[in-house]
């Protein structure tokens, strides 16, 4: 399993880098849209398994449409449309579950899970499209993925060799305090190395160096939120009695299993990028 994880990563890494660096904004948005649909399907499979069994169920269909709509709006810079899609999802889903209320007492819960899924997935994917379309977008997106990957790897190996104290055993029995701290240290160290070389990166990836004080804070907050994203998905799967979100990535499980930390790290990067480093 461990070898399979690394082989999958070695195959995917060049493809991901090529997509981020070479793809024009519209093609990048299209690929992100495809990934969003896959992630939403896995999400519905976890939290609303009865709904996803029907191809024509209104909840997943409206969810897919809303997610693609947000990503298309983000690629066009129409952030007002994204703001309209959210209440639209609430109204549409709320209307659709009304006739089935007596047969399905969890109708209100389904509406909440639908709206939560749009925030958790569709909006986060839309933010990635926004970041990529901005100046130095490819560098920012690559830095996001690298920092989360470094933190995840650092947490895994630190926890494996030095882990003694359980972090949140009811959520994830294998995660330890030592692993969490190791992941944070790896993210900060990796971020500092990247920041040192930002002005001289090749292939037009160079950009101004981040202020060191704010930069270190950014790396710490990003690490904390990325680890929280990992644990958040663990809660979803544990409550649903599911081991993996899917099987699309050998050795890694589903797409959600691989990007759970990225999802929580995206708004952190957007916040610092737009309101601190700007």
Explain what you see.
The protein has helices spanning 2-22, 25-47, 49-52, 58-76, 79-97, 107-133, 137-162, 177-197, 212-240, 255-275. It is mainly α and 278 residues long. The N and C termini lie far apart (42 Å).
In short:
By secondary structure, the chain is mainly α. The protein has ten helices and no strands.
How would the blueprint of this fold be written?
Layout lengths: L1 H21 L2 H23 L1 H4 L5 H19 L2 H19 L9 H27 L3 H26 L14 H21 L14 H29 L14 H21 L3
The helix/strand order is HHHHHHHHHH
State the end-to-end distance: 42 Å
Residue runs with pLDDT of under 50 for 5 or more positions: none
Tertiary shape: globular
**Percentage of helical residues?**
over 70%
Major pleated sheet = none
Number of strands: 0
* Helix/strand structural class: mainly alpha
Percent of sequence in beta strands: under 5%
Annotation keywords:
mainly alpha
């Amino acid at each position: 399993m461990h070898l399979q994880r690394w082989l999958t990563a070695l195959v995917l890494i060049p493809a991901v880098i090529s997509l981020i660096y070479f793809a024009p904004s519209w093609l990048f948005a299209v690929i992100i849209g495809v990934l969003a649909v896959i992630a939403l399907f896995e999400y519905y499979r976890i939290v609303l398994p009865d709904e996803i069994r029907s191809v024509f169920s209104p909840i997943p269909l409206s969810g897919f449409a809303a997610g693609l709509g947000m990503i298309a709006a983000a690629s066009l810079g129409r952030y007002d449309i994204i703001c309209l899609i959210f209440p639209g999802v609430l109204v549409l889903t709320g209307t659709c579950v009304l006739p089935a209320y007596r047969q399905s007492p969890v109708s209100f819960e389904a509406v909440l899970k639908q709206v939560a899924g749009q925030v958790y997935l569709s909006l986060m994917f839309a933010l990635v499209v926004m970041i990529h379309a901005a100046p130095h977008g490819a560098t920012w997106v690559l830095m996001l993925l690298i920092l989360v990957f470094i933190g995840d790897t650092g947490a895994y190996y630190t926890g494996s060799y030095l882990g003694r104290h359980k972090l949140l055993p009811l959520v994830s029995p294998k995660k330890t305090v030592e692993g969490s701290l190791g992941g944070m240290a790896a993210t900060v160290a990796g971020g500092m190395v990247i920041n040192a070389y930002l002005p001289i990166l090749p292939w037009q990836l160079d950009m101004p160096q981040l202020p060191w004080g704010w930069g270190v804070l950014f790396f710490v907050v990003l690490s904390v939120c990325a680890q929280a994203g990992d644990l958040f998905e663990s809660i979803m799967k544990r409550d649903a009695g599911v081991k993996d979100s899917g099987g699309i990535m050998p050795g890694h499980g589903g797409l959600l299993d691989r990007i759970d930390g990225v999802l929580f790290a995206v708004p952190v990067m957007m916040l610092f990028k737009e309101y601190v480093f700007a």
